[in-house]
């Protein structure tokens, strides 16, 4: 739930004027996204999403995020298209914050994705990776292996009474990942946060991707590992191999995974689960009581972290290695 | 900020089917309204507001609220029109809650209303009162003079350490209002919650009224008194007589106030300020820390309560008695 900043009609009218989208007809704060303030805006005959970037987003990164959306939208990947002002720029300022308007994307996100949706996100992600290959800008992943230990240390500092077993387990996994993290996998532009609420469907068809505010330049297979964590576990935290197979096979048919990517998948998936465990834990131990922010339980990702430690090969995630070899 | 209940696409698809509005295209929780969960829904080529009625709304009252919106919308008052299902009913059930869909109304609510907007709401409210005159249903105002003392006693019980001056002041005002409350004023269907966030404008033109979930059968002039409290004070709690005059004169031109209504205005306005002070105070002392509900400060209405106690006649609110007599 996220509207951190309210805006007045006067401010908004002045803000949208240079975008040439017509008269302001209505705007409503929407209860989605946890980092920024989002409004659904009707102007002229069109619908837009207006985003005010709150303090967790570095303004220096905005040209990368908005440039990527524009690149993908113009390369046949359905995602919000930043609206340009008369002077060709997309980024403005509203209520003292950087702000941008993007086109509205129809579609609903799947609260309970099925294997069909997992296949859809696999196919769509692979297409997005191919389309992103010639995107000219670069951005370092700010939440990759080197960033996890400092984040973990901040968690410990904020919450000195951390559970001992969890602490030992995390330290051990950190050490393993720092040693084993693959450095030579195919790189590209990744979404890095492909959770179900960032992928829209119309019926069973994927209708688009949103929320590129963690996008960065990193191993493509890491994006696959994030999605595996986000889409292929049940509510009881058990891994659903039918969904895993659907996602991996669909991805692999559009952009065949390389052998080093396949070998690295268990390590990447363990890393992805640690990354989300750590950011959730950090929010958990640092968000004051009474805050309006909904805190996500780190437990879910502690369970996933443990699961990935039991995996020996990508076959156990459901990837059909036999079909690949005979193809 | 209000989305208390999330819904899945399957549930929503099943819910909207009987309304015959076409395929579900998108839905977003919106951060407006404090009593219910609201979603902006795109289906077919249209936009709707879907409301899930949470526990503070009595389901037995819903036919009155929805019937009133339909009555007004078909009598030239711009407000959301409840959408009917194939069987002619408007009320359904979603996620275990009563739920209804209404048409979407364009317009923005004024964070900083000017005298022009105050005149707009005065005119619009008078028209709404005339249009509501032949609405067949009745509903008792559940927050009128007899309800205030029990509510105050609940506040005291929940917060035994209540400020002594405030307690004395409230008790004194309660006693005065119980004695002086006018019983013979013209009755009708009133909105009873005409705050700026419930009135939309396109430019300076009023485009509609929303949120009829406090509407009831009561003195028409009480609605005027609520609006006077909600629209005609500045952020520093000072009364703006230019705005008051704009609102009252505009109302009076469409539906002339009777002499007893004019005489009663200071008492009604003090009562309205006590009513909102008490519900805010109740929420303040009973809402647990850490709740997602934004608590509104009762102080604002304590200040207004004090102001109305200084008023001797409706002229001091800005009503142009001279113009009325010479008209």
TrEMBL record, chains A, B:
It catalyses: L-homoserine + ATP = O-phospho-L-homoserine + ADP + H(+). Its EC number is 2.7.1.39. Pathway: Amino-acid biosynthesis; L-threonine biosynthesis; L-threonine from L-aspartate: step 4/5. One of its GO terms (biological process) is threonine biosynthetic process. The keyword Calcium does not apply. One of its GO terms (molecular function) is ATP binding. CDD domains: HomoserineK_II. Pfam families: APH (PF01636). Keywords: Amino-acid biosynthesis, ATP-binding, Kinase, Nucleotide-binding, Threonine biosynthesis, Transferase. It comes from the Bacteria. The keyword Thylakoid does not apply. InterPro entries: Aminoglycoside_PTrfase, Homoserine_kinase_II, Kinase-like_dom_sf, Pseudomonas-type_ThrB. Residues 27-257 form the Aminoglycoside phosphotransferase domain. Belongs to the pseudomonas-type ThrB family. PANTHER family: AMINOGLYCOSIDE PHOSPHOTRANSFERASE DOMAIN-CONTAINING PROTEIN, AMINOGLYCOSIDE PHOSPHOTRANSFERASE DOMAIN-CONTAINING PROTEIN-RELATED. This is Homoserine kinase. It comes from Oceaniradius stylonematis.
């Amino acid at each position: 739930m996220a509207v951190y900043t309210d805006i007045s009609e006067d401010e908004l009218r002045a803000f949208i004027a240079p975008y040439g989208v017509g008269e302001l007809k209505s705007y409503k704060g929407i209860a989605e996204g946890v980092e920024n303030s989002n409004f659904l805006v009707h102007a002229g005959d069109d619908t837009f999403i207006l985003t005010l970037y709150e303090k967790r987003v570095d303004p220096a990164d905005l040209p990368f995020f908005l440039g990527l959306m524009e690149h993908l939208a113009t390369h046949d990947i359905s995602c919000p298209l930043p609206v340009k002002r008369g002077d060709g720029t997309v980024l403005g300022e509203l209520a003292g914050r950087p702000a941008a308007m993007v086109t509205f994307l129809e579609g609903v996100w799947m609260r309970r994705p099925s294997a069909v949706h997992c296949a859809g996100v696999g196919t769509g992600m692979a297409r997005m990776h191919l389309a992103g290959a010639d995107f000219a800008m670069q951005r370092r992943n700010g939440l990759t292996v080197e960033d996890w230990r400092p984040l973990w240390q901040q968690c410990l500092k904020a919450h000195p009474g951390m559970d001992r077993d969890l602490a030992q387990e995390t330290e051990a996994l950190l050490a393993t990942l720092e040693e084993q993290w693959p450095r030579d996998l195919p790189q590209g532009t990744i979404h890095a946060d492909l959770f179900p609420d960032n992928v829209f469907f119309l019926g069973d068809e994927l209708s688009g991707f949103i929320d590129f505010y963690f996008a960065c330049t990193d191993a493509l297979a890491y994006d696959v590992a994030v999605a595996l964590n986000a889409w292929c576990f049940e509510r009881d935290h058990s891994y659903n191999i039918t969904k895993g197979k659907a996602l991996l096979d669909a991805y692999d048919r559009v952009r065949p995974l390389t052998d080093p990517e396949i070998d690295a998948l268990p390590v990447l998936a363990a890393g992805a689960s640690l990354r989300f465990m750590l950011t959730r834990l950090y929010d958990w131990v640092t968000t004051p009581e009474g805050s309006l922010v909904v805190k996500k339980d780190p437990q879910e990702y502690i369970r996933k972290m443990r699961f990935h430690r039991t995996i020996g090969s990508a076959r156990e995630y459901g990837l059909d290695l036999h079909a690949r070899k005979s193809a």
